[in-house]
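User: For my dataset I need records formatted as: sequence, then structure tokens, nothing else. Please produce one.
Assistant:
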Amino acid sequence: MSNYKKKFLKQKGQVAVIITILIACLLGAVALVIDVGSLYQKRGFFQNVADSAALAGVQELPESPDSAVLTAVDYAARNNVDIAYDCRDYTSEDVEISSTLSTDDTIKVTLSNREAPLYFARIFGEDTVSLGASATAMVGSPSQMFGVVPWAAIVPEGTNWAYWLQQVVGDDMIISGDMDQSDFYAWDTTDHPGGWNQRYRDRIIYGYSSPLSVGDTIYARDINIAQTINATNTRVGVWDPFYDIVEYDDYLGILRLIKDDTQFVIVPLIYEIRNPRWPEETEILAFTPFVLVGIEGHGNRRRVVGRFINQAIIINESDIGAVDLTGIKVIRLVR
């Protein structure tokens, strides 16, 4: 055999070795990419479950820490993630209730040592890897309210508004042009009459676009019922039964919102004024959740009927403080 052929065969053998090494490296890279991608996806899944479980559980706070723990555990189980739970004392090592701005207003869900399978990396002797995730959620009351409708509930002068509100929750409340019958005033942020009617109509339909806070000054007056009826019908569209929107919690003994609906509104509370025929300056005492029930009567005797409820969870981007008695809560992930 000639030296040329020997050299060629030698080089051919070297190329085969290099190709074999390259294929092994390529397979290792493929294994790394596929397994890393799989682990990233699995880690994201665990994080989503932790986030969702924390947000589900925090809705029970601060009233019922035990229910908050159970709800978080149950929500994770629905997503095929088990969390150890001791039904004897309603506790879980992986779900912690704590206090941030007020008592029992924070929940932390921890998913630790969760096994995730490996695929191509098994050729290197590794079958699984341990992953984890955690999420912390908090409940509070918003410092500012957006989307408030232009009806102010009338609190009798000299009455503690929180006590008064507790007594009327669930009762039919009347929005009417007859001030001897109405439980509400119309309100605006100015006493200037120009454009009042248009602003009133738009704010029934869309809510007030700027933020409002407890203590802000507004101007209250009597209600134009014809305009109120028309704007309310435009806002609501199709009316739902009250108990399709609200549920009664037997454990807590409260009415709470369960469905985001155009019949749900936020109204301010104010003390009654002397002469509602003209805009009169007053101050916002609090905000409270209110659900429109329907429109009753005929002609000039038509009226809008609604009911105060104890609790509603809303989306609000403003700062939050300790949960107060208004019944409006904001939940947030704070991890």
